[in-house]
């Protein structure tokens, strides 16, 4: 089962390698990991999706909490949080396919952000399922290149871990 | 305090942290720091190999309870510390390891003697720092000593680029500000109540004690609790000495080479109170059949240990000493019952034993004789058969008096660690119980011991083989002794003399007591070469991967 955890960490050198290293050292599998600034310049926020049962999740959380640079770790349950991912996909776009690609992009509320004679770059933000759906639809035309950010997540409602 | 160089600031920090001695070996990038050490009150012990600096600092820390400090230069000096740091990490030893580093402008350029030591040691340190600015030195040192010595102790590494030790700073020792680090020492009342109720309900309790009790100084509280409820107590290798082994409730050590009765008691128990122990595989044997009837109460200062290896029924996060004190208050006294009789029966029927009256010297007899002559000694061990005999056949009664590399199992640990322990506790008699294999791994430290007049007594149980591995080959590999025969072991008496130490030898059982007395009377570093048979075995034994119930008593 996939779990999403969101550690708030100190914005210091070596924090990413310590965090990622912990996963490999303990034999945990990272599905995706994102990291970026928070509103506090001394803090960064990570969103990590990890595969495993409850025992694995508990160990990951406890081991992360042991790192001196990790301020706090929260688990984000799918039902109580929102998650989004950004994907950009370079798709082969022959003349005869171009309008169909445009139609698909419009129906699934993605966007074309670059056009060239033989390709297009499509940008999409959404849940992981939605991104997956778009990838499936575009595959018929030939995907030349694909980049995904991995998920960023936040708990619903007014409770917050801080800026 | 005004302006000073980075090197002076480092020594000022060490002084403020109460450091009286450090173990190290200089190198190019450390020249400014060593120049400052030249004028300092802090005693620097020059080792002959950096690995020994880390082990000596570790032995000093385990014997005194204070933070051990070691120092090595960049590159190979730093990488030579790694085994020592990993040893300290596995056994939760408070250690601050300082390493030199190439100047900040050369970091990442593959400069001469450059190694990414903070990167290399991430998995084996509690925390680490690469100091990039001299003004950070006071904060980093303050934090490093605090992190190393609080909560679950552990090694902290500080990497010091050359220019950082030269540049000037305004010295001010700051307050600790670590938003992500707050060791959870205070035990939760409700969990104590639940644990106490479980202890009261239990008919067959066993208290299983690890190194956490030693680090929290909880041995008195442990005895109080055990006596109040008449619960038998078994210790891990790390917990040895936390409960006096001559006590009627003592089961000695459990696990692979633990006593038969400790292992039987665990397997029959209906409640296990684990305190400051981590259910290591050498303790539990086959985990699925470990203590099959028992509810488990687990007290640990490190929440990540709870539930890591076994399912825990009642977790208690917090300091072992306060948890034991609270538990002792919360329980009602119990009297000696059928469970105690049953355990006493096992103790009677399955004692630790060895064949007496042989022509050759029995290693177990050597340990018993040391115990008879010097019952209050600090026993440091190497790793292998010597370590297990030292755990089994010396009656351990005091915490911090048994010092051994348990988690990492580092051969070569004992001798430098014994030097550190003796320097921390000069009034105590310190033995290194060694094998000829382990001792040769850091034998060069004879120079350190002799020159600094450290009167450690190295007892080499000399069987000419790598005995523990050979024992496994004997039992499980059809006596195919692949690469466990050392063929020609040096003459340790001559080696001792070459370094200026005292060398003694015993080849017959009748000589053992005499040479040991001579060694104890010696006021300098002494090697006692004791010739034993390569076929001596450590018994009893739970084969790897077997259940504790399958413990074998081998022919001695």
Task: Please explain how this structure is put together.
The complex is a heterodimer of chains A (about 160) and B (about 550). With about 160 residues, chain A is an alpha+beta fold. Chain A folds into two domains: about 1-75, ACT domain (Alpha-Beta Plaits, 2-Layer Sandwich), CATH 3.30.70.260; about 80-150, ACT-like. Chain A, domain 2 (Alpha-Beta Plaits). Chain A is built from four helices and nine strands; from the N terminus they run E-H-E-E-H-E-E-H-E-E-H-E-E. Chain A has helices at about 15-25, 55-65, 100-105, 130-140; strands spanning about 1-10, 30-35, 45-50, 70-75, 80-90, 110-115, 120-125, 145-150, 150-155. In chain A, a hairpin with a 5-residue loop joins strand 2 and strand 3 (about 45-50). Chain B folds into three domains: about 5-170, 3-Layer(aba) Sandwich (Rossmann fold), CATH 3.40.50.970; about 190-350, 3-Layer(aba) Sandwich (Rossmann fold), CATH 3.40.50; about 365-540, Thiamin diphosphate (ThDP)-binding fold, Pyr/PP domains (Rossmann fold), CATH 3.40.50. The interface between A and B is medium-sized, with 21 and 18 residues.
Give, in order, the helices and strands of chain A: EHEEHEEHEEHEE
Compute the number of strand runs of chain A. 9
The residue ranges of chain B in which pLDDT falls below 50 over 5 or more consecutive positions are: none
Query: Domains counted in the coordinates of chain A: how many?
Result: 2
Average pLDDT level of chain B: 97
Q: What is the assigned CATH homologous superfamily of the largest domain in chain A? A: ACT domain
> What is the top-level CATH class of the largest domain in chain A?
Alpha Beta
Number of strands of chain B: 20
Global Rg of chain A: 19 Å
């Amino acid at each position: 089962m996939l779990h999403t955890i969101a550690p708030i960490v100190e914005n210091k050198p070596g924090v990413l390698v310590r965090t990622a290293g912990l996963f490999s050292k303990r034999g945990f599998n990272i599905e995706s990991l994102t990291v970026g600034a928070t509103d506090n310049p001394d803090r960064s926020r990570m969103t990590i999706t990890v595969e495993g049962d409850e025992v694995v999740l508990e160990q990951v959380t406890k081991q992360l909490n042991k790192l001196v640079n990790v301020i706090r770790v929260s688990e984000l349950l799918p039902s109580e949080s929102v998650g989004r991912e950004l994907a950009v996909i370079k798709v082969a776009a022959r003349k005869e396919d171009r309008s169909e690609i445009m139609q698909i992009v419009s129906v699934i509320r993605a966007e074309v952000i670059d056009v060239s004679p033989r390709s297009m770059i499509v940008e999409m933000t959404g849940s992981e399922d939605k991104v997956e759906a778009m990838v499936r639809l575009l595959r018929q035309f030939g995907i030349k290149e694909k980049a995904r950010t991995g998920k960023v997540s936040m708990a619903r409602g007014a409770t917050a871990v801080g800026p | 305090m005004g302006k000073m160089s980075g090197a002076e600031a480092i020594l000022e920090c060490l002084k403020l942290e109460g450091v009286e001695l450090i173990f190290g070996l200089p190198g190019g990038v450390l020249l400014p720091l060593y120049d400052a050490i030249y004028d300092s009150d802090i005693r620097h012990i020059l080792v002959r190999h950096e690995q020994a600096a880390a082990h000596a600092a570790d032995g000093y820390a385990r014997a005194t309870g204070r933070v051990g400090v070691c120092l090595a230069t960049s590159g190979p000096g730093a990488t030579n510390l790694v085994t020592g740091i990993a040893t300290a990490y596995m056994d939760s030893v408070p250690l601050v390891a300082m390493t030199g580093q190439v100047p900040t402008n050369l970091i990442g350029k593959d400069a001469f003697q450059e190694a990414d030591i903070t990167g290399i040691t991430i998995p084996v340190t509690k925390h680490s720092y690469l100091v990039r600015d001299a003004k950070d030195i006071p904060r980093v040192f303050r934090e490093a000593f605090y992190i190393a010595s609080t909560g679950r102790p552990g090694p902290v590494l500080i990497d010091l680029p050359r220019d950082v030790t030269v540049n000037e700073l305004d010295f001010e020792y700051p307050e600790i500000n670590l938003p992500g680090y707050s060791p959870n020492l205070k035990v939760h009342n409700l969990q104590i109540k639940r644990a106490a109720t479980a202890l009261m309900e239990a008919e067959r309790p066993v208290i299983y004690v690890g190194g956490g009790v030693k680090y929290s100084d909880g041995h008195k509280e442990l005895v109080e609790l055990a006596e109040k409820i008449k619960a038998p107590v078994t210790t891990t290798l790390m917990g040895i000495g936390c409960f006096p082994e001559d006590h009627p409730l003592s089961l000695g050590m459990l696990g692979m080479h633990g006593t038969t009765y400790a292992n039987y008691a665990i397997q029959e128990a209906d409640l296990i109170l684990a305190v400051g122990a981590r259910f290591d595989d050498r303790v539990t044997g086959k985990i699925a059949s470990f203590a099959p009837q028992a509810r488990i109460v687990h007290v640990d200062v490190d929440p990540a240990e709870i539930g890591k290896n076994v399912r825990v029924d009642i977790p208690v996060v917090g300091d072992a000493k306060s948890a034991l004190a609270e538990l002792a208050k919360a329980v009602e006294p119990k009297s000696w019952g059928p469970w105690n009789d049953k355990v006493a029966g096992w103790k009677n029927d399955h004692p630790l034993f060895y064949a007496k009256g042989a022509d050759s010297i029995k290693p177990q007899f050597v340990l018993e004789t040391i115990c008879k002559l010097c019952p209050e000694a600090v026993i440091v061990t190497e790793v292998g058969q010597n370590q297990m005999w030292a755990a089994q056949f010396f009656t351990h009664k005091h915490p911090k008096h048994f010092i051994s590399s348990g988690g990492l199992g580092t051969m070569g640990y004992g001798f430098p660690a014994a030097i550190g322990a003796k320097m921390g506790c000069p009034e105590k008699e310190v033995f290194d119980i060694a094998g000829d294999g382990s001792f040769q791994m850091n034998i060069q430290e004879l120079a350190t011991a002799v020159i600094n007049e450290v009167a450690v007594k190295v007892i080499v149980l000399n069987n000419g083989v790598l005995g523990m591995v050979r024992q496994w080959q004997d039992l499980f590999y059809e006596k195919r002794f692949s690469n466990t025969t050392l063929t020609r072991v040096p003459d340790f008496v001559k080696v001792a003399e070459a370094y200026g130490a005292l060398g003694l030898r015993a080849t017959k059982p009748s000589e053992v007591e005499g040479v040991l007395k001579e060694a104890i009377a010696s006021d300098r570093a002494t090697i006692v070469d004791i010739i034993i048979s390569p076929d001596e075995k450590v018994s009893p034994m739970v084969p790897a991967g077997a259940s504790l119930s399958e413990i074998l008593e081998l022919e001695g």
